[in-house]
């Protein structure tokens, strides 16, 4: 029922998935959460209003800066409270139709994980939905049922990647509630056998692709970062053979690549006879990603 004139409010609804799907409803500012989703569901011919999730409209086109902010289930008492969100009076709300009821969804965490196959170049994005109490170990076990592994006993790990650099390997007991896939890429991959059988002097290093931006004289990182085991006494020539094999780069292209040790942004170009290991002796305090072997191409 609409209350008397003063409280009438026309609200414009836009679909998050299909922005062109818009409609308007005349509601009352005194409507509660359930009233509003019932009206939206009725307009969309949906049986279950609890599958509607309302979201604040982002006020500009920079979707990255304005991640949609979903409204919690029964997250307002009166429509007027929500339309004055953060003191921005607005009469626009977005909505999405969920595949499960919102109260149930709020007890779950949905994450997008990029799975990197051990022997193929393909990367497949998997959507994992688990209880917010779950751990990274639970996530990996769930992912194993969805992906093709190189062998049945393969172990997976979950990494945090941003700007083509690896920032973190998650421990299996970390809670998925704390994971963020909005600003970081969550990447799952098989742990290579060589990393499991490290000798006492072996190092695991970060390897990144880069090119120089001549305009700004800055390094631009690109492509997929990875880890590599290096051994004491190994020359760049020996390390290059393993990198070429791992990345499956044709000889002609690979011969044009340059290799540099980077520490805190300072590059030292390496010759084939240089022992790579010697550059990675110092354990610097900034974190392993600040020291890496750079592949320039």
CATH topology of the largest domain: Ubiquitin-like (UB roll)
Strand arrangement, major sheet: 2-1-5-3-4
End-to-end Cα distance: 67 Å
Give the biggest beta sheet.
5 strands, mixed
What share of the residues lie within helices? 10-25%
Number of domains: 3
Q: What is the typical, i.e. mean, pLDDT?
A: 88
Shape: elongated
CATH class of the largest domain: Alpha Beta
Structural class by helix and strand composition: alpha+beta
Rg on CA atoms, Å: 26 Å
Question: Which band does the percent of strand residues land in?
Answer: 35-45%
* Quantity of strands, as a count: 15
Question: Architecture of the largest domain in CATH?
Answer: Roll
Question: What's the name of the CATH homologous superfamily of the largest domain?
Answer: Phosphatidylinositol 3-kinase Catalytic Subunit, Chain A, domain 1
**Low-pLDDT stretches:** 60-65
Sequence of secondary-structure elements: EEHEEHEHEEHEEEHEEHHEEHE
Number of helices: 8
Short description:
This protein is of the alpha+beta class. 18% of the residues lie in helices and 35% in strands.
Description:
The chain is an alpha+beta fold and 297 residues long. It has three domains: 5-100, Ubiquitin-like (UB roll) (Roll), CATH 3.10.20; 108-190, Ubiquitin-like (UB roll) (Roll); 198-296, Roll (Ubiquitin-like (UB roll)), CATH 3.10.20.90. It contains eight helices and 15 strands. The chain has helices spanning 33-43, 79-83, 102-105, 136-144, 193-196, 236-247, 251-254, 276-279; strands at 8-15, 22-28, 52-56, 69-70, 92-97, 108-116, 123-131, 156-162, 165-169, 185-190, 203-213, 218-230, 258-263, 266-269, 291-296. It has a five-stranded mixed beta sheet with strand order 2-1-5-3-4. Strands 7-6-10-8-9 form a five-stranded mixed beta sheet, covered by helices on one side. The longest helix is centred in the last third of the chain and has 12 residues, at 236-247.
């Amino acid at each position: 029922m609409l209350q008397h004139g003063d409280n009438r409010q026309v609200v414009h609804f836009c679909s998050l998935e299909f922005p062109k799907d818009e409609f308007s409803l005349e509601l009352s500012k005194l409507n509660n959460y359930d009233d509003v989703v019932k009206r939206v569901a009725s307009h969309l011919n949906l049986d279950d209003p609890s599958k509607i999730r309302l979201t604040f409209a982002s006020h500009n086109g920079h979707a990255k800066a304005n991640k949609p902010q979903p409204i919690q289930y029964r997250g307002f008492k009166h429509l007027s409270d929500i339309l004055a969100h953060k003191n921005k009076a607005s009469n626009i709300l977005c909505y999405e139709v969920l595949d499960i009821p919102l109260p149930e969804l709020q007890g779950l965490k949905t994450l997008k994980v990029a799975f990197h196959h051990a022997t193929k170049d393909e990367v497949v994005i998997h959507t994992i939905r688990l209880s917010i109490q779950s751990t990274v170990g639970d996530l990996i076990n769930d992912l194993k049922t969805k992906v093709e592994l190189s062998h049945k006993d393969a172990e997976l790990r979950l990494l945090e990647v941003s700007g083509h650099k690896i920032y973190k390997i998650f421990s299996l007991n970390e809670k998925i509630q704390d994971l963020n896939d909005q600003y970081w890429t969550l990447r799952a991959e098989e742990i290579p056998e060589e990393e499991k059988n490290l000798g006492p002097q072996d190092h695991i290093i970060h390897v990144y692709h880069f090119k120089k931006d001549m305009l700004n004289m800055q390094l631009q990182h690109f492509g997929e970062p990875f880890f590599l085991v290096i051994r004491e006494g190994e020359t760049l020539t020996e390390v290059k053979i393993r990198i070429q094999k791992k990345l499956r780069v044709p000889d002609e292209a690979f011969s044009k690549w340059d290799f540099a040790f980077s520490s805190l942004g300072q590059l030292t170009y390496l010759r084939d006879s240089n022992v790579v290991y010697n550059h990675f002796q110092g354990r610097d305090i900034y974190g392993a990603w600040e020291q890496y072997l750079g592949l320039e191409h």
